[in-house]
Amino acid sequence: MSAPGGPQSPAGWLWRRPRRRYLLGIPLGGLIALILGIGIAGGFMAALKRTESVSFCTSCHEMQQPMQELTQSMHYLNVPGIRATCADCHVPPTFWAGLWRHIEASGEVWGHLTGKLDTPAKYESERRDLAEKIWRELKANDSAQCRRCHTLAAMALDKQDPIAAKRHSLKYLAQTHQTCIDCHKGVAHTLPPES
User: Fold this and answer.
1) How far is residue 9 from each of residues 4, 23, 24, measured CA to CA in Å?
2) Cβ distance 167 to 174 under 8 Å?
């Protein structure tokens, strides 16, 4: 039996100089694959971030009306100067859920190409369905997008209206199974008319 690290041990076999020149390509190929993998992953992440920018979101004329509504809301103009972007509210904060939202959004390109919302009247006719879809998503993920910025533990409940403070308490939320969107619809966009 050979000594550990000797020529017959697995470590010795792995690190000994190959006898054939073409075997030198294995570590070099691994290094190239690693560099390519990092480049592809980085490019993919950069593309995802680009599609989350306000300039990208508002590049379709259908999004001009929602953007105009956002600019008049507390999520755009406020005392501390914190500004929410489209992705902050419409893309879940976790990677896989966010990736799935991007995949879903790619299907919305068809609506753009076919003119589904190309006039203010068409947009208004779809407003309720669009809002309810977002509300369902937020309810299903416990308003994860809201909680990215609004942390219950950091809220100064003693400075809130007594009713708001009660509804933001962990006890109340645990009893009612409510989430942010149950009370805070229309914080960034015009509410659809009641049907």
Assistant:
1) 6, 19, 20
2) no
Please list, in sequence order, all residues whose beta carbon lies within 8 angstroms of the beta carbon of residue 29, skipping any fewer than 6 positions away: none
What ranges do the domains of the chain cover? Answer: 68-195
> pLDDT digits over 54-100, tens only?
999 999 888 999 999 999 999 999 888 999 999 999 999 999 999 99
Whole-structure pTM over 0.85, yes or no? Answer: no
Any idea how long the chain is? 195
pLDDT per residue as tens digits for the range 129-138: 999 999 999 9
Q: Which of 150, 155, 153 is closest to 188 using CA atoms?
A: 150
CA atoms in the 13 A half-sphere facing the CB of 71: 8
On whether the CB atoms of residues 52 and 84 are closer than 8 A, the answer is no
CB 56 within 8 A of CB 169: no
Q: How far apart are CA 185 and CA 189, in angstroms?
A: 8
Where b means 16+ CB within 10 Å and e means fewer, 120-147 reads eeebeebbeeebeeeeebbeebebbbbe
